[in-house]
């Protein structure tokens, strides 16, 4: 069985190590906060928060406490708040160890497209371009194919790029892929998913 959204987020949380400062993108990556567990991870949100907790239980939401995707979240005893300029200073200054981001497309070279679809209304690019340029490691979490069954992991991205050769690891509902200079390398398969199924669902070169 391929992984569902929560299982993908749980697998992504395994990428994090004690002491890391980590930014979570919009979509599936926000669920990673629920699976950090006992690890000493500090989650950063580009709207000006360091030390995000998991999502609140129903009825305990604080409408003033939101992440960059405008979802209600919780704070921790060590949470700190600051303006957006300070937040982006952390990102651009290389202080954030890793970013876990969603994507519309990823190429076999690690190019990332995750901020717009031409012709559709876009609120803005958010912090994605700064994140992929400033953090130490970029992990993408997304469905392997779109709702029509077409691969989202391509030889070349067709959508406007967020960054070129910026993705280190891709986690999808089918498994885990690393970006190498020769092509994509299968690290792990979701339970019940075969190597052949992974290859068939991937337009990009798997080595």
UniProtKB/TrEMBL annotation:
Family matches, as Gene3D superfamilies: Glutaconate Coenzyme A-transferase
Pfam families assigned: CoA_trans
One GO molecular-function entry: transferase activity
Keyword annotations: Transferase
Family: Belongs to the 3-oxoacid CoA-transferase subunit B family.
Entry-linked PANTHER family: KETOACID-COENZYME A TRANSFERASE (PTHR13707), SUCCINYL-COA:3-KETOACID COENZYME A TRANSFERASE SUBUNIT B-RELATED (PTHR13707:SF57)
Annotated protein name in UniProt: CoA transferase subunit B
Organism per entry: Thalassovita aquimarina
């Amino acid at each position: 069985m391929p992984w569902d959204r929560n299982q993908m987020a749980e697998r992504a949380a395994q990428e994090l190590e004690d002491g890391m400062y980590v930014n979570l993108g919009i979509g599936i990556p926000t669920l990673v906060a629920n699976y950090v567990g006992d690890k000493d991870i500090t989650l950063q949100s580009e709207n000006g928060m360091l030390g995000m907790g998991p999502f609140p239980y129903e009825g305990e939401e604080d409408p003033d406490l939101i992440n960059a995707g405008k979802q209600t979240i919780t704070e921790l005893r060590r949470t700190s708040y600051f303006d957006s300029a300070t937040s982006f200073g952390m990102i651009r200054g290389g202080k954030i160890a890793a970013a876990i981001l969603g994507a519309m497309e990823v190429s076999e070279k690690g190019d990332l497209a995750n901020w717009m679809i031409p012709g559709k209304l876009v609120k803005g690019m958010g912090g994605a371009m700064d994140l992929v340029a400033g953090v130490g490691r970029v992990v993408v979490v997304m469905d392997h194919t779109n709702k029509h069954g077409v691969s989202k992991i391509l030889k070349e991205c067709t959508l406007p790029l967020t960054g070129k050769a910026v993705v280190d690891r891709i986690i999808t509902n089918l498994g885990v892929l690393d970006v190498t200079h020769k092509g994509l390398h299968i690290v792990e398969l979701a339970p019940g998913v075969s190597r052949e199924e992974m290859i068939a669902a991937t337009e990009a070169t798997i080595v």
